[in-house]
From TrEMBL:
Identification of the protein by name: Inner membrane protein YjcH
Annotated TM spans: 41-63, 75-97
KW Transmembrane helix (keyword) present: yes
Alphabetical UniProt keywords: Membrane, Transmembrane, Transmembrane helix
Matches recorded under InterPro entries: DUF485 (IPR007436)
Length: 120
């Protein structure tokens, strides 16, 4: 579990950070850059996968002959594309984990450390 997933501990200082301070951090350029980087990855990847999945569904509904085309033995195009959906899911997950570890987590940790330094 990442340090950014853990709550700020009340025992560190009974005077927790105010909601106003959180709003200031949310409006900061560092936080805005963090959100921007996350969105630049998540939205295109989501659009790609939804289009890829919709294509599979449309082909399954309207291109029966194409999807039933045998490739090898009882394996047909529909089965290969269906398995490709799973592979794509794993690939996107791996890409996101790598992206988050390199881009998101260090920035989030820096913002959190700055905020926590105010209560110590």
């Amino acid at each position: 579990m990442s340090d950014t997933d853990l709550p700020i501990r009340k025992e560190a200082n009974p005077e927790l950070i105010s909601g106003e301070r959180y709003l200031q951090v949310q409006a900061s350029p560092e936080f805005q850059e963090l959100r921007s980087r996350l969105r630049r990855f998540v939205f295109p990847m989501t659009a790609f996968f939804l289009i890829w999945y919709a294509t599979y569904v449309v082909l399954g509904a309207f291109a029966h002959d194409f999807m039933a085309t045998r490739v090898w033995g009882d394996i047909n195009v529909g089965l290969i594309i269906g398995l490709g959906q799973f592979l794509t899911t794993f690939l996107i997950t791996g890409l996101y984990v790598r992206f988050a570890n390199r881009e998101i987590d260090p920035r989030a940790s820096a913002i959190r450390a700055e905020l926590e330094s105010e209560i110590k």
